[in-house]
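This section describes the prediction task in plain terms. A model, or a person checking by hand, is given the sequence of a single protein chain and must write out its three-dimensional structure as a string of tokens. No templates, partner chains or ligands are provided. The sample shown here is typical of the held-out split.
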Amino acid sequence: MEWGAVTAWMMAGKADAALASVYLRPDAANLSVFLARQAIELEAGWPILSDRRVTPELYDHPADVQCVARRNAVEVYALWEAAGRPYLDTPRFKDAFRFLVACIRSGSIPPQRTIGDVPPLNS
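The expected answer:
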């Protein structure tokens, strides 16, 4: 969800001044965030609705390129946080909730036991 807000911030052109302050070109920042986001979501275990497992494009590049892309993405993320985390708003939370519900319904995320499903400790 946060990476979506970072992407929206950059696509709206609001990040250009911040990127210029750290000598990072907007096109390089966009590509770095795109590549790193895919890898970060996979590594974090973010659910996928389709049956098709996609390997992040970042993994197709040499180790030094992967490091640069990840470092640039982290720098952009820090700039986004310093800017007050724009575009992290109610519609984005709502979309993330809907996505997670769809994943649970499709079986991508197994159902979790609730407090009512767990027996008491003293039994």
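For orientation: The chain has a mean pLDDT of 85.
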